[in-house]
Amino acid sequence: MTYDPPGSSADPIDSRFVGAPYDPAAVARVQRLRALGIGTTPDAEFNKIAAKIAHAAGTPYAMVNFVLDTHQYFAGLYEAPSAGTGTLEAAQAAAQGSVGRTMDLDHGFCPHVVDIKHALVLDDVCAWPRFAGNPVVDELGIRSYIGAPVFDRAGVVLGTVCAVSTRTSAWGSPGVELIKSMAVEVMDLINRRELGGS
What we know:
Layout: H1 26-36, H2 44-57, E1 61-67, E2 71-79, H3 88-96, E3 102-104, H4 110-116, E4 120-122, H5 129-132, H6 135-140, E5 144-151, E6 157-165, H7 172-194
Antiparallel strand pairs: 1-2, 1-6, 2-3, 4-5, 5-6
């Protein structure tokens, strides 16, 4: 599979909006995730891909994230042992009152990737008013983000793969190609499972 998202939009992100974007495709996406049996429990293969992303990108955090109608779920999660100024689970606990792999739709940047249907590169989140006010910036100390959408075979956006850092980053073309290739790896894995492969 190649990374050529169907229906991609090159429209600029509205810099005035801070929270999660309106998501008219949420119900269809949740139905598709249920049919695929993913997005609600940790997944060892997605964890491996998240670790691969973090090591290749040189970041303390990486996720294979499925965006549901009420929250995000990190089916694949990597957190470096000494990551950042806090821990991902501590940030989640502060945001939601519980520790786990879920995150509110207004926390983080992946819902925006699902909305725009193409890669999002934030070398310095504080340079973008729309993203500088995101709760994870203060709670987790996130300063840079790169993410790409994950599509199924029919072109439904299921979620994202992403890497985040507590430092600013110069992702450039290598970073974009890396995150897109990791999205392809997740898509291929999902497709193989659906078609009865390994």
